[in-house]
Amino acid sequence: GNGASRPLSALHPPRQAAGAELGEVSRLSCLADQFCNAIGVLQQCGPPASFSNIQTAINKDQPANPTEEYAQLFAALIARTAKDIDVLIDSLPSEESTAALQAASLYRLEEENHEAAARLEEVVYRGDMLLEKIQSALADIAQSQLKTRSGAHSQPLPDS
C-alpha cells in the first residue's frame, strides 16, 4: 500500500500465525508489511534530498529526528524477521532427502513399529496369564472362606 497517505498509527502490526503450518507464510507476510511500512514512513517523513548535493544531505552531525528512529526501528524489525526466515529455510528438508532415502526411513520406522507391536503382544499375553492366576487364586481363597464359614456353622455349640 501507499504509506504516504496514511498516518503512522495505521501501520500494520506484525501478524501472528493462527497455526504452526502458517508460520512460514506469516513471517514472510510480516516481512512484507515491515518493508511496506518502512517505505511509507520514508515517503511521509523523509527529508527531500538533492542528488547533486547528496553528501551534505547525509550529515552525521544532524540531531536525532523521528526518521532516524524509524529507520533504526524498521532495520531491527526487518533484520529479526529475516533471521526468522533464515531459520525456517535451514529447517527445510535438504536436497539430499531423496525419495529413496525417505522410503528407507519409512521402512525402518515400519520395522520398529512391528517390533514394538510384537513386544506389546508379549506383554499383553503375560499380563493375561498373570490375571488368570490371580483370578484363580482369588476363587480358591473365596472357596476356602465359604468352607470355613459353613463348617463353623454346622458344628454344634459346646455346652457351658
TrEMBL record:
GO terms for cellular component: mediator complex. Transmembrane segments: none annotated. Belongs to the Mediator complex subunit 21 family. It is found in: Nucleus. It comes from Gallus gallus. The keyword Coiled coil does not apply. Component of the Mediator complex. Keywords: Activator, Nucleus, Transcription, Transcription regulation. This is Mediator of RNA polymerase II transcription subunit 21.
